[in-house]
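Regression test case RT-17, inverse folding.

Input:
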């Protein structure tokens, strides 16, 4: 169990708490994770959400760009090395 003192700092109109690289490693998280926050009886608990998208629709939730067309397709060259299975 790790015990550390963290400071709450102003961040725009909000406030933030910095987590060190070792904090994130112990959580099994990184800067791409979202956190579930629970506040109860004056205590805050943060738990990383490590879910991966289950479908392509889940992966692109919130994407507001145009779908790729046939002309956007990239054709890779022939397999030439260890990528051949």
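Golden output:
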């Amino acid at each position: 169990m790790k015990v550390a003192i963290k400071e709450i700092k102003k961040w725009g109109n909000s406030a933030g708490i910095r987590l060190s690289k070792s904090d994130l490693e112990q959580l099994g998280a990184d800067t791409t994770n979202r956190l579930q926050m629970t506040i109860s009886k004056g205590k805050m608990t943060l738990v990383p959400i490590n879910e991966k998208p289950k479908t392509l629709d889940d992966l692109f939730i919130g994407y507001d760009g145009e779908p790729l067309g046939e002309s956007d397709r990239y054709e890779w060259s022939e397999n030439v090395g260890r990528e051949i299975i």
